[in-house]
Amino acid sequence: MNVAPRLLLVLSLAATAAVAAPISPPPPTPAGNTAEMIQDTRVLDPYRWLENWSDPTVRAWSDAQNARARAYLDGLPFRAAIQARLARLIKAASPAYSELEAHGSRVFALYSDPKFQQPMLVTLDAKADPASRKPLVDPNKIDAKGLTAIDWFAVSFDGAKVAVSLSQNGSENGTLHLYDTATGAQIDKPIADVQFPTAGGGAAWAKDGSGLWYTRYPGATRPQADRNFFQQVYFHKLGTDAATDPLVLGPKDGLERVSELFLDTRYGNDGCFVAVQRGDGNQWSFYLLAKSGAPIRLAAYDDHLVYATQGPDGAIYAISRKDAPNGKIVRLKPPFAAGALAKAPAIVPQSGVAILSGGAEDHRLDLALSADRLFVRDIVGGPNQVRIFGFDGKPLGKLPLPEVAGNTEIVPLAGGDVLFNVQTYLRPVYFALWHAATGKT
After folding, report:
1. Angle at 331 between CA 297 and CA 247, to 5 degrees
2. C-alpha to C-alpha distance for 214 and 269, rounded to whole angstroms
3. What is the chain's mean pLDDT, rounded?
4. I want to staple 324 with a disulfide (CB 3.0 to 4.6 A). Which of 81, 286, 350, 423 is the partner?
5. Closest Cα partner for 332 from 323, 342, 322?
6. What is the C-alpha separation between 249 and 259, in angstroms, rounded?
7. CA-to-CA dists, residue 104 to 24, 98, 108, 354, 397, angstroms
8. Which letter does DSSP use for residue 246 in this model?
């Protein structure tokens, strides 16, 4: 169903109704005198005071704005009909799975059903059979009002544990909760300030499941204007007090106020691979972390690498745009030294199609690696293709996507098979199972 034209229709009705609807004056919003120096330029920010939600004046201003809006919207003569029509359209959409990950004997996924307010984290069997779906973390049961949401989740390598960031009231201010997969029971105590919309957040388990690396914002340790910036990485050992968790990646290692961090241990290596984006500018640097000891910075922002991950063979695979605007794949074998990734040799040279990178909401989706194959997502004019290579760069064909289709997720399974999603104009998004032995879906 194409909801967009219907949505435009009901919104146009709302606009028509709004012409005659009275509206009260807005609450006063005085300008402050906040200013700061950014790159030697004085930048005024007169309304920064509104960011301080702990200020009773800000809460009163917000309440007054809400009351004004409610009085106006509730008075629209067509509002009830529009609300009912939108509810019917939304609930008519198809349920969908996203963010699939295979660990142990399970596939983990977010499951969105229009009948429910929030997506839930579910498990499926090893082949992702929908009939095997079991809820693991369901925000709709945690919060009957539907005001609690899953920001993201991270599964341990063996699938026995999962970390989930939960936030309330649309704030995206996430607290990390740890769960036992078999029972759904919470383990350990929640950890606050792991996620915020300024730079997101993430977590990644140690291979043995004894603890995990996670992002954390400074909170009250910095001035109000900086509390939702300066994202850093800590390591938490299960059963210990999170207040004593050691800082393993921070400003002393090159992180900046606007750094966005993506943590990755999905292929079961001993360390944690970290991709760091400078703001939203698609400039990246990459680090390798251990539970203790100094991090290794493998590449810097000016090395023109836009994606990297440590594969199941222990080598690091990266998308480089250095002298290759369409992208090339480079590979770095261990042992690793600072700056070594920038000098890694290419195994997949630049071609006439552009390798997709840097645009995924989850940075880990840009490349996928099975037990012995590399899957490279390209854009060809508009539609996608997925090329398959050996770890040495030898071409091994393509995933059988329809002629005009998109792909955003490729999920390695045990034995070398992969799940991949397909988007077309003719049917809702679906997942297909590709068999490594036959090359067929």
Report:
1. 25
2. 16
3. 92
4. 350
5. 342
6. 11
7. 59, 19, 10, 34, 28
8. P
